[in-house]
Amino acid sequence: MSHQAQNTASASVSAPAPVLVIGGTGKTGRRVVDRLRALGRPARVGSRSSATPFVWEDEGTWQAALDGVSAAYVTYYPDLAFPGAKEAVGRFAAFAVARGVRRLVLLSGRGEEGAVAAEDALKASGCDWTVVRANWFAQNFSEGFFLEPVRSGELVLPAGDAVEPFVDAGDIADVVVAALTDDRHTGRTYELSGPRLLSFHDVVRDLSAATGRTITYVPAGSDDYRAALRAAGEPQEFADLFTLITDGRNASVVHGVRDVLGREPRDFSAYADEAAATGVWDV
Questions:
Q1: Helices (H) then strands (E): counts for the chain
Q2: What is the pLDDT along the chain (283 residues), one digit of tens a residue?
């Protein structure tokens, strides 16, 4: 064998298997993809529009998405608490393990009883699992369904005066990448939050400071919000997710980011300043 051929063979043997990132174009998924690639780990985006498509409702797409994969980051849209999520996640996990994929990292919801059933379904596959439970993302205001209300200058939401420790999607991605690449996190459940509790009054104060515009928060009734979701063509179940804020179940700061990464989580105001600098909220 020639020296060049030996080098080629060695490279092919040592090349790491790809990690499947389901929802690899989403808030946490694309950050996980970027971080894995920066570490020299190949990441395969699994989404409806990716080169190798992954569609939760079409199990015929799962085989190709998992081909040659060593691990997967599992995110479920729109939410693990939605009907059918537990069954889909369980079937996918069993399908993956049957094809030799051992490590699965699941993005779950902090304080979501419905999500625990999906966690259990994933674990039942016999995989090497890690569960990452996160509460509401800071990036919902710049990349999600709060973006247009922020641009318009008025957030009308059924959250009352309740508080939430909004967590940065970058912190979630850092924890997920650690779980995908370090055996020490196998069999662990981590709960993530930001470093402080904020009401939506606090949120719009930080957003106003970051944008230099006046952004207001108007508490709304749940029925009115459902009607607004219906008119916008969004799932009305999103209104139910506000229960995760308004009943206080997540009204505490938790320390999963520090436990995994050895540092404090990013503050909402830092997120707001950085997002504002991109021009995402310019009108």
A1: 14, 10
A2: 555 555 544 444 567 899 999 999 999 999 999 999 999 999 999 999 999 999 999 999 999 999 999 999 999 988 898 889 999 999 999 999 999 999 999 999 998 888 999 999 999 999 999 999 999 999 999 998 899 999 999 999 999 999 999 999 999 999 999 999 999 999 999 999 999 999 999 999 999 999 999 999 999 998 888 998 888 888 877 888 888 889 999 999 999 999 999 999 999 999 999 999 999 999 8
DSSP H helices in 39-157 = 62-66, 85-98, 113-123, 140-143, 147-152
CA 77, 83, 85, 88 dihedral sign is negative
Cα separation, 122 vs 102, whole angstroms: 11
Cβ within 8 Å of residue 136, ≥6 positions away? 164, 166, 167, 244, 245
Q: Are 141 and 275 in contact (CB under 8 A)?
A: yes
The tokens for 232 are: 């916008």
- Which among 169, 159, 167, 163 has a CA at the least distance from the CA of 195? 167
Tokens 């060593």, residue? 70
Nearest to 193 by CA among 168, 214, 212: 168
Instruction: Break the chain down into helix, strand, coil percent, rounded to 5.
Output: 45, 15, 40
- The residue ranges of DSSP E strands in 193-262, in sequence order, are 198-199, 216-219
Distance CA 156, CA 221 (A): 9
